[in-house]
Structures are given as structure tokens and as C-alpha cells.
Protein 1
Amino acid sequence: MKRLLSLFLIISACGLLITGCSPALTLSQFFSPVTFTGYLLKSDDATLTLLCQNEGAKEPETSVFDLTGLPQGSLPETGSEVKITLKAGTDTESLETQGDPLPVRRLEVLTASDAAEKSFHSLLAEKLLAGMSLEEKVGQMFFARYPGPAAPEDEKTWQFGGTILFGRDFKDKSPDQIRAEINACQDAARVPMLVGVDEEGGDVVRVSGNPAIRAEGFPSPQTLLQKGGMDAVTADAHEKDALLKSLNINVNFAPVCDLSQNPADYIYSRTTGRDAATTAEYAKNVAGAMTSDGMGSVLKHFPGYGPGGDTHKDFSRDSRPLETFESQDFLPFRAGVQAGAGSVLVSHNVIEAMDPDHPASLSPKVHEVLRDALDFDGVILTDDLDMEAITKAYGADTAAVQAVAAGNDMILSSRYTIEIPAVVEAVRKGTLSEDQIDASVRRVLAWKMDLGLIEN
């Protein structure tokens, strides 16, 4: 009888204690502490922020936890999947309403950061996406041509996802000046920007063409292969990455994956000048080196330039059969994708075997081939929409809307002040689906996370 009375008093006392804490706190909560499972977003010595998808919630949520009750020790890395058990009797609703951290009794690592990276990035992308307006989402889909001194203000206004610099943007400038200009743009960005350049080597050397940055321009792919083979190619890729990263550039629009063994072809001097197998090996080595260095790579110009003319100046048609593309032109692109390339750029050539009515960059059929034949789920990017192969036939607003409808995730152009509003308006009118916009922005955000631009 005494034991039963003691147990009754203990239970009664617990009930009074629970009722005193909060009417919402039940006896079962007292004896079964609350747990949270999610991904470590950030932490310091005293607190930890967890990103998690709670049941019934429309978007990922964050919760902050008090770590002072845990034994001293190293914390898991950002992105690790963890399970947190709260101290018994914690009134989570009351503490979260007051903005106070939740007291932790136990922290368990369920999945290390490396293994959990893809899931963590996916959830973080959803969190970022949920906080964006339609205008901000569309802005993320533009890789805008660097507008010079107006760049920080334009970035503040339009929030484009990336900017690409050309030779004029490096001319007569010191490395410190270039870094300062890029940093000013990044400071205006609510989501860190992709900062790109064409540094192929040979004819296209936007950065190393400035003697204040490098004594001489990087050599062409053909020169590298002739003088040192694939070892020289790989070493050159690493050197380019180091130089570009020192200037705060995080994307190089390379490697060129086009095939040409005819010196009369427009694209020939920018290619390896070798066969499909050698060019595929070249693409694999360059893209692999860039991936290991944390430098964004852009495979170009899908589905393969071949004998096509200069689309900077005019329309160009390619009448080769589909079998040629499948057996030859696709090989370097496939090798680059398998080596970790984050983006593929689509040309403005009309590929008659795939779509005789549209430039590849504006063709849904070509984009379907890229997704399916190469099993590619990264960022698809247009060639510059200001090239005359496009401007002679399409207005800026029409071209941008058609580019998104075709399946591009990002648009390369300097006319973003016309094109961003045109895409936004097309979504509002129902011409374009916001679900498609969201899918593209997810890919852009995933690419940025892979490059370490977005950490928390």
C-alpha cells in the first residue's frame, strides 16, 4: 500500500509539474522526450541549427538547439544527418514561440556529411526556393553579361544567378581591381553568384590575354596535345583553375567538346583537332580536373558544332545524320558529364536531324536528347542570345521565353532588363509553368552548392 501511495504521489507531482510548465505538455511527453531528425545547417560552441522537413509542413523548417548540456567534443560537419533528443520535459512549443533554443540531451549522427550531401542540398534548395519571389527565381536563371560599373546595382535590382566577364572586363586591370569588382557584385547578391569566363586557351583567353595577370595566354588544346599529351592538358586545367579562383571566378566556360579535323571549319582552332575518342579523353581530363578543383565547367557547344558556320554572325544549319552525332559528337559530352561537369551549353546551330525548324538552343527536341542520351540532370545553358543567329530571327523577349520553354535552365545574355520581365510575364500569363521555373532554379542552386558557394 505504501509503494502504491508513493507511486501515486510521484505521478501526481509530475502531473502538477507538467501542468505548471504548460497546459500543452502531457505526461507522455515528459517520459518520452521529443526528437528531431534533419541536417546540420550551422553550429557554434553553444547552439546548433537544424534543417528538417517536418510532417505536414509545406517547406523545410529550421530549429535552433542549445548544446550547453552536452559533453564537450567536436560537432558533426555541416550537412550531416543527425538525430537530436531533447531533455525530458521540454516544452518545445513555448520555447520556439519565445525564440529560445531547445535544450539537447543527446545528439546522434545518422549519416556523415559526404554521404548525406545530395539529400542535404536538395532540402536546402527547397528552403531557399520557398523564400524567393517569382522575379528572384527568374533572375537566378540568367547568366548575365557583366555590365561594367553598373554591375553591383544591376545585381541588386535583378538578382541574376550568374555573370560572365569578357576580355574588355579584364583589360588594363590588376588582379586586385578584378577581385574588388567581383566582390562588389557578390555583396549585392542575396544568393551567391556564379562568376564565369571563357578561358579555353589559344584563340579564347579572356583572362590570360591580360599581361598583368599572366605573362602569356594559355595555349590551345591542340598545342597542349602536340607538346605534352594528356598530362599537359590536365596540368593546364589545374593551372587555369588556380588562376581563376585567385580572382574569385568560379566557372570556366570550358572545355570545348566539339569535333573538327578540318582547318576550314569555323570551330576548328578551338577544338583538339583530333578524333572523337581523343576529344572524349580530353573532355574527361579537363572536366575531371575542374571538378576536383571545385571549378564549375561548361561543356560546349552541344550537340556538337562540326562544320557549322559562325553563329555570332548568322544562321547556320547542320545537315549531318543523327547517327553521326550519336556515334561521334556525343562522345566528348558524355565523357565530360561522367567526369562531373555541372553544365552543358547548347549552340544556335539548326540540327536538321533533330529539329529542322529551330536553333538547337531554342529546340525542345534537342534538349530532350541532351537529357536522355547523356543522362544529364545538371544545368543546361543557352549560348549567348545576343548572337546574330538569334537576333536576326527573334526579339529579345521572344527568344528568352522560347529558350525557357525549350528546357534551358539558364540564359546567357546581356539584355536581361528586357528578358527577365518577359519570362516573368510569360509565367503570369500561363505561357510558362512556374513548376518548370522551380525545377530550373533547383538545378542552379544545386550547382552553386556543389561549387561551395552556398553552405548554409
Protein 2
Amino acid sequence: MIRTAAGKFASAVKNHRMLEGRKTAVVGFSGGADSALLLVMMVEVLGTGNVLALHVNHMIRGEEADRDEKFCRDFCSERGIPFRAVRVDIPMLAKERGTGLEETARNERYRIFAVAMREGYDCTATAHNASDNAETVLFNLIRGAGANGLSGIPPVRGSIIRPLILCTKDEIVSECGRRGIPFVFDSTNDDTDYTRNFIRHRIVPLAKEINPAFEDAVSSSSEILRRDRAHFDSLSSQYSLSSGRKILSSLDDAVLSRVLLDSLRNAGISPDSEHITNAAEMIRSEKVRSSLSLPGGVFSIDRDNLRAGFPDTPDGTVPSVLCEGVTVLSEDTAAVFVRSSADSSKYINPLKNIYKLSIHVSADSAKINDVVSARERRPGDRYPFGGMTRNVKKLLQSTKLPLETRRFLPVFTVGDEIIWLPGFPVSDRFRPCGDQVAELWFFSEKNSDSSRKE
């Protein structure tokens, strides 16, 4: 077994054909041991003039970040390596986008790499290593990931290559010492308040007490999973929802789950493992028609036809599909749908601190067998309660609710049928008549300090 960083670098480059047909590269250069060794090795393979060392200063660590940028600039100047530094105010961007620092920084780095490659570079090399891969696999395992997450960091993804992916951190630092390659240290790597650092400093050492070659073992497992996943992905790519219910129901679970995952994601839906399981059960059930509310849309079945996305509406507006729990309808309104009234308090109580107005109604859960949605009112909307079919517009004209509130009231539907207008009774057909009681809530008019409470 190869134990040196140089040997593992050569093995990864060869086995994954990282530099096949590639003569120039952008190298992500942070100044740490990983990227310093990567840069030196890439220069050795491609030549000094064919490599661009690209440093991204995230402007997160103040003087320490500026120190790292200067170190990288001096490192390249001393060796004649083309260098570029790009500064990005990650804290500001993260605040504007409502995303985490780590996610924002990662997205910006890859955007900057892509821009640099347009100048004629064949690929971008990043310094992800076997220790990073082990931490990623553990992180995904703890979150309950499937084969994709447990496959770890891909050695090659399009034009992104990772030549150090088989090298452990210890091997990299040892190689830097042997070659006399200087590097800097990021002080935030010791902060165990970050999940990844907690895994690195607390969990990985325990795993290495059981197996000192833990990181190599994870790399091997990741490679096996990537091969298996590629096989199943190849099988699943032959099918889609248009293949029909009869064909899809005959597929192995591993293939069907991948078909559903790809199809739902392509429709703008973000399913979790439970959603995939429920959709597969629907396909294999004996029900002629059924539907499943999902984050971002609906999965529905009508005989042999399967569909994912938003249901069609006559006026072209898109209804808000209500999943179990809270659904934000607009900047100032929200809804809650629960199939069991016993589950409502955990959703309702926090919202009562955010919104001034709350209206709710109970409904027969057993009769809610289609998609529950909230949509804008339309001319001619009607629904029955109290033994009569009522015109929604006239109902609103008779209500004592303030005009501003009435303007934003949606109607709640099951499939195409209106079952409730907030402020009025539930549709006669959905009145509770048994033990299965669902609840629908509508919230509006945020408190002035709600942004702080959220």
C-alpha cells in the first residue's frame, strides 16, 4: 500500500485520469499545507507557466486573512509562479443572501475558479484530501445520508480535480516538512463549535484508536460506493416518470428511488428519504388516483400517469402546496396544516408570537385524500357550508374583517375543491364527523417586532 503523499498524488492523477488532455490548471491556493503541497506538485507536473495560483481572501479573519494573502503572494513570487488574489466580503454576502458563511464562501470560491478558467485553463485543482473526505462521510452519515453522501468527495467533478484526495493530512504535513515547503495555519480550524472541526478533533481520533488507517479505509469505502452508485445511476437513467406506473412499479427499490429522486428534483421539488419512500409506496399501491404534497410541489398519480410539479390553475397563478406543518404563503401570511389536531401546538404556538391574526378550522382528516393548497381567490369561487353553496366574494363583503386583511385572504382547497375561506366554516363535506380531526390555520399581520422573534 502506498504511504507517501507523492505516491498517492501520482496514483490519484493516473487512476482518475485527472490530467488526461489537460496541460494548464488553476490551483486553489489558501496557503495551508494542503494547497501549498498541491501547488508545488502541480507545477512539477505541468510547468511553472502553465499554472495559476488563485487565492481567495474571504475577509472573515481580519488581519490573519491579510497575512495569509501576503504569504501566498510571497510564496509564488519567490518561485516565479503566476499568482492572483481575489477579495470577497463573505460576511456581507452571507447576510444579503441569508446563507451560512461556509456555504457562501464555498459558492464564491467555485464561481471565482470558473471565471479564471475562462482565460484558457483546462481545469481547477483543489486540495481536498483523504482526511477531508473522512470528515465529510462522517458528517453525512450523522445526518442520515444515502449512497450519494457516503460516497464522499468525488476525485473529479467536471473540470474540478482533486489530486490529493488519497493523501491524509498527516502525510501532507510530513511531505511539506521533507521538502521544506512552508505553510500557514488557519486558527478557526481549532474551533470545535464548528461541526466539521468537532468531527476532526473529537470523533476522528476515536475512530483512529480502533483503526489507525481509518482515513484510508473510508477512502476505500467511498470508492466502492462511487462505483456501485455509478452502476445504479446508469440503470435509473433509462427511466423517468413518463415510463409509467406499470413499468416503474416493477423496478428494484434501489433503482426506483433514484428515478424518483432525479424526477422530483428536476421538477423543482426537494424531497427527503421519507418523501421518496412514500412516493414509491404510492406507485406500488392499488389506488387509481393519489397525490403527495412535497416541499416545492406535488407528486400525483392518475391511473398509469405520474406527474411532479405544481398543479395547473386556470388563471396561471401557482398555489401554495401545504405540507404537514408550517407553510409561508407571503411576506405577511402563513398557514398550518396538520392531519391530527394533537400535533398542532408545536407549530401554532411559535406563530402566535409572530402574527397578530390567527384563524383556524377543524376538518375531517379521513376525507382529505388529495393535495391541500392555499391559492388566490378567483371570480366565481363558491363553496358549500350550512346547507347552502356560498359565493366567496359576497361572503367577504359581509364579513367584519378589516379591508386590508380581506385583501390577502386565500381560499384553501383539496384538489380542485374549495374547503375553507378563513373567517367562515369549513365546507359541509369536510365537517369533522369522527375521531380523525385535521386542523387548518391562517396567520396574517406580523407584529412589528416579529423579525426579531423569528
Protein 3
Amino acid sequence: MAGTDRAVAMEALARAGEAVCFAGDQYRYAEVGRRAAALRHPNDPPAVELTACLVTGVAATLRGDHERAGPALRRAVVLGGRLTGPALTPTALTCAAAAGLVVAVDGAAHRLAERAVGLARERGELSMLSRALELRAVAEYWLGRHEAAAETSRDGLRVARAAGQFNCANVHLGMLAVLAAVRADRESSLRRIREIGPTPTPGSRPHALAGWALAVLDLVDGRHAEAAARLASLARLGTGRGQVLVQVMATPYLVEAAAHLPHRPAATAALAAFDRWASSTASPLRRALSARCHALLAPRGGVEAEREFRTALRLHPTEDGAFERARTELLFGQELRRSRRPRDARGHLHQARETFTLLGADRWAEQATAELRAAGESVGPPDLPAARLLTGQQLRIAQLVAEGATNREIAARMFLSTRTVDHHLRNVFHRLGIRSRTELARTFAAEPHAGLASDR
């Protein structure tokens, strides 16, 4: 193929690389990288150069050479943003989006994946649509937009099933299981794992995502040894086997579980790999998570733990990532309370509780409430108006319902599917503790200023 059409050959190598990553055979990516390097020419057209940069960057990342990986991956992102004419394809855009995720430029990765989704729909390229939606969901996860990531994954699941792409469907199911587990929604997470089936291929991406989800549920329930063991098994560091990139994403949970155990070699090794990656990026979130991990592994009640927690809070982005910041506030509050500093703990715990309540993360809000009570504070239900309990899109839908609009009318006005409106409305009812559209109208009638936040 290389002798007749280098562009097609390079694209084939990129797809081969994605296949070995999906299967958990990352050690084979080195050969993909060598073949791509042999195909490169100094004056390659943008689409060919973009694909070559992706393969080169991923190969370097997998062998831990972030100094070489970063420039190649960033170049792929830049080229993806410049594509025009025949070079502008869903395949090229997904390659650029994948590069953006590996180098941790989440906003750019999301924009590229969004363009890939739109272009794939427009051209009817269903084979690429599911992959583009997968990348968009991962970007939304890193941006802290968990509801959007879940909606994207549900869309991807429908597309993959309709196209007969069962491996892709299982990836979306795995992502939905992780997102539900992160929100401590056990029932939804286990249901998605059951949908993957009883025997996902060991080492494959769906298998790893299901393991990550189960580990988070273990962590929520205080089964720290089980959670750590599951997460440590996602990849065998140094061998190129298993889901290395999934384990990197899950490392903050591995460290949190291991912090409760006397022996932590797997977590220490995983954190070292995470640190090398995080420090090679310009991502404040990755560095915040790294600092939080070091705080958790530091001696309890010591200066190092407090310093690392404060570093994490300083680094956490203010616009995106409210959930992860709230998790850091909760963990810092726990550390301070257990170090017999309840007064210092309360401010962090209050902040965590309010954020979790606003995000609808009820189980985490309950944990923050329990910690506040343990810190000697009498805590009632959060005194928050309806408008503050809802996201911007949920609030707009709720207002239209309160005004008497049907779901179909709302979908047309907001350029959404009726399925999406139904989903958001169920979440509105849950967050506000109501059961009907009539109750919703009464709630908004009792809060005349709720509409002030409609453009959030």
C-alpha cells in the first residue's frame, strides 16, 4: 500500500495503532511507530503529516518519552485546526482530537471531536461517527462536564449499535459505567457493565473501563483493597500490556484507594507514570490531580499533606472541573478533621457539599455532610434555590416546562432531540425533589428570580 498511496498507508497505520490500543497490546505500537516514521517525507501534505504526528506522539507516550511526544502531538492538534478542502475529513479530525487528549489540551480536543462528529453526520460516515463521539465524551470527562459526556456516550452507543460496531458500543457502555460510578450511581453503573456482556476480552478497553467503574464503586463503599487491586490490574506498567492510557486516567482513584492501605507499590508506580505525563503537559487539572495524589500518600497530619492539598486547590481550574475540585475539598477536609483540626476542615467540607449538591452528586454530598457532622457541625439540608440546583440547560428546560411548553416544543426551540429533553427533565425532577410538571410550575412561581440564571 505504501508504494501506491502513502496517505492511505499512513491512515491504515493509525487505525492499526488504534486496534492494538483497543486490544491492550500497546507494546506492538512501537512497530506501528517505526513504519510510520519510514513513510514520512519532509513535504508531506497536512493530513498525512497530521496522522504521522499522532502515531509518532502516541508511540513516544507509550514508551514514556514525553519530551518527544509533546511536540508531535501538539503539531497534530495545530494541523487539525487548519484543515480545509479535501483534507478536512472526519478521520483527520479524530486523529487530531486523539492527539489533543493524549497531550491534555482538552478544549482543543473537544472542538476537534465536535467538528468530526458534525462532519461525519453530514457525510454519512457512520464508521467514524462512533469513534468521534467516544473522543468527545472523553474530552467532556476531562473538562468536568459529566452530564454532557454521558449524553455523548449514549449517542455513541446508539450509533455504534445501529452500525453493527459492537466493540465501539462496548466502549461507550464502559464509559457510561465509569461516569455513573464516579457519581456513585451504583445501579446505573452495574446495569451498563451487564450490557457489555459476561466476557469482554481481558485487557481490552471495554474490560478496563468496566474494571475502573467497579473499582470506583468499591472505593465509594470503603472497599479500598479491592478497589486498588482492580485498578492496579488495568495495565502492567513497563510491559506495554493492558490499558495503559485508561490506567493513567484512573490513577487518582488508585492512589485514593491505596492511601488507606499499608503497602502501596502499585499506586506509587502508577503515580510516577502519571506525574511524568502531567508535568509534560500545560494542564492545570492534571497537575492539580497529581498534587492531590501526593497529599493522599503523604504522612497523615503532616506539613507535606497540607502543602500538596493547597497546591491542588490553587491549580484546579475555576471554569471547568468543579467536580474534581469538590473531591479535593472533601479529601482535604477529611485530612484536617482526622488531624484534629475540625474548625479548619469545615470550610472545605461546606464548599464540597454545596458543589456536590449543585452538581446533583447526592452520594458525595452525603459524604461531605457526614464529615461536617463528625467535625462537630449540625447540618441541615442545603438552603439553595431551585435555579442554583440546575445546570444552565436544565434551568432553561425547566422554565419552558413551567411556562407550559411540551417536550416536543422545547426540543424544537433548543435544537435538541426529544430524548435529550426527556433525560434532562428527569434530572430536573430528581434534583428538585418533585414528581410532576405541575409541581415544577409551582416551584418556579414561588421563586420569581429563578429566571435570572437562565443564560448561565
Protein 4
Amino acid sequence: MKMWKLFGIIFFCGLLSPSREVLSGLSCAVSPRAMQNVLSDAILQNGLLQQHLQGLVLPNIMGDGGLLSSPTSITGLHLVKVRLPRLSVVLLPGIGVQLTVTAKLELSGNCLVGLLSDLIDILVDVNITANIKCTNFESGTVQVIIEDCLCILGAIKIKLLSGLLSLSVNDIVLNKLTATLPGLLCPVVDIVINLVNIQLMGTLNAVIPVGTAGTIHYQLASLPFTSGLFLGLDLDGAVQQVGGSIIPHDSSPSALPPLLDKLLVLGLRQSFLTAVLSLLLQIPPQTFPCTPEAFSGASHLQEAITALVPSGCSVCRGSSALSIRITLAGKPLILLEENKATVRLSVMIQVFVKRLDGSILNLLLLKADLGLNARVSIAGGRLVLGLSLGSTSLSLESSDVGISNVSSLKPHFSGLLVETFLPLINAALSIGIPLPNVLGIPLLKVEIQI
């Protein structure tokens, strides 16, 4: 796969005055240059066209000669090699892709002119133009059909081993190839295009594991569409937990930004990203003693809590260390604004002591609503989020010892979460969100916009 100059990626949400409504997890805009690279690699560089043209046998060419020339017959004429193949692409709005292949075909056979037998080599320029349209969308796949295939012959060079060549042979070959080659080449192009379609569908329809938590099933959501500027693809992204439960996500109509100089723009919707975060962030409850070994600010936190305990609570003023339990509450939510991505996440924080009889005394049950600033990067074809604490909102759910105001505890618990829980979140997210390998276009020199 050749290294292409620039791949573009963008995350967005909400309504962006769409020109075409789509209801899927992802949308892609592929530039004509990218399509040309993709098809050139698949058809020419990988030898697919050469493979299916190799050994192509042409009908015998017969000429009766006439009054001033001898009868001519050319038999066993077959294709030896495809030379200098080139491919170009034009996107036809509302129709599909116009594919043009130019090449020199090297043909060889036996030539009989009168009673003289000779070997004949023919080099013919061909220009094949085919209009390709996608149709019959079903279950994430489409069929491709060639609506028009035009094959034009250019210059023809004929060489006999003996070096003798009459005008009659030249005229006969030109007329017969003009009549027969299009009918032979266009069906081959049709076969090649359908094979390429199968290959490219495989890049769009794939089940990709997300660590051990589950999978994302990417699938083409609708028929591809074309404008003069790009080929549009909408993909569903079904986020599935291990065991088969699918995490639902809503989709909103949206529009992709202009390609500018990029090969590809990939739009990931807020709801889809939120569903994948729910899959990744499956952190079990964390319980640990409130000691300096577990948390550097443990002594200050214990002092701050002790100061809030009403007088007369002897059991909670003992010298035994407090214990802390942190549990995820609800599902994460990613919010996308211009140049900013924030993850909203809630956790429950339980601060308790064990009585001598083994029972639990809850000093505090708190809910912390976190605003986490997201840093976004691409690594190994995956979207990786790194989170840092932006804001904390602390609220008291209950207290068995009568604590009623916890506002002074906010900095202590913010520090606790940054030191003990946020690393667990980032470790879970480090797996990354696997991105679809759209048409095999590599993720090189990625530009990320929010």
C-alpha cells in the first residue's frame, strides 16, 4: 500500500445543516484522489486486471485479400502483457464513479499471408471508460453494475517476424480489433470491478474486538452516494458487550465538513462515542484504606472528615483508619463542543469504618459528578482518549453520623480521585476505540478536529 499524503478525521455532534440526512454512527467523505488511489492499488498495482486479461484469446482474423493482395489469416491471437496501465476516476453526482483505464495491450499470434506463415506481434492502445453504479443495498452490502462501458482503440503497431507487412494486413487487423476488443474487454472490467467491490466491502463490514470488553460491528448503513467533490459512506457501529448485549446509541442527522486537501474525512457522532465509552469503562468498585500508602492526602482527608463529625459520635472519632469505596454510577457521556471534548462521569464515594462487631458505619455517602477534559489521539488505527480532571461537583447522599455540609471536602476528594481512580479510567481507555479501515485508506498524518 503506497503512503498517501494526508488523512483527515473530525468529531462532531448535533445538527449541522445537513445536505443529506443520515442516521448512523459514522459518516465518511472520500475524495476523488483517494478513490483513484484505492482503485489503482486494487486493480493495477495488485495485478488484478493483468490476472484476468492474461491469456485472453481473440477470434481468428480472416481477410480474403482482394484483387491486389493475398488472403490473410491470423490465428491463435492472444494477450501476452498489459503495458503501462493507468487509471483515473471522476465522481459523477448522483450516479457513481466513472473509471477510465488506459493501457497498451501486447498481442501475439500466427499470421498466414498467402502461402507465407509468420509470427505477428501487435501493440494496441486502449482506453476503457466505465460508469459504475452501486445498487441493491441489503444487510450492509451493495452490488455494483456497469451502466456504460466504452472501449476506444488508439494507435496500433504491427510487427511480423519476417519484417514484411502489407497495408492489407494493417487494415484487416485495425478493423477486426475495433470490432472485437470492446466485447472482450468490457466483460473483464465488469468481473474485476465486482471482485474489487467484494474486497472493499470487507473493509467497511467488520467486527473488531475492543479489548476483552466486547466488539464494534461496523457495517455499511446505506447506499454510497456521490457528489462532484466526494464519495459519501454512512456506517453503522453496533457496540456489543461480551455476552451479546448491545449498547444502544441514537443518531442525529449531520453533515461532513469540506475535504479541502484531505483524502478522507471520518465523522464520529457523539452518541456512538458515548456507547463505546460505556463499553470501555467497566471498572469494578475500588475499596482501600484511607492511609498514606493508598492515597498521599489520606491524613488531611481524615482530619477534614473528623472535623465535620458532630460531637458525641465516639465510634467515629477512634484511631482506626477510615475505609473508602469508589463505584461508577450510571453511564459516561461525551460532550463535543468546538475545539473541546468533555466526558461527564459520576461516581459514588463511600467513607466508612468497621465497628468492633463487624458492622459498617457509613460516615459519608457522596456523589461526585466529574467533568473530564479529553485529549484525543490516533495510535495503531485506534482512537485513544486521555482524560484529566476538569471539574468536580460533590453532593451528600447520606451520613449515618449526621454530617450535613461537605463543601470543605471537595478539594480532598478531587485529589483522591485524581490519584486513585483517574489512572484506572485512563488505563481502561488506553485500549482505544478501533476505527473502520475505510476502503483500506491508511491513517497517516491524521488531523483531529472537534
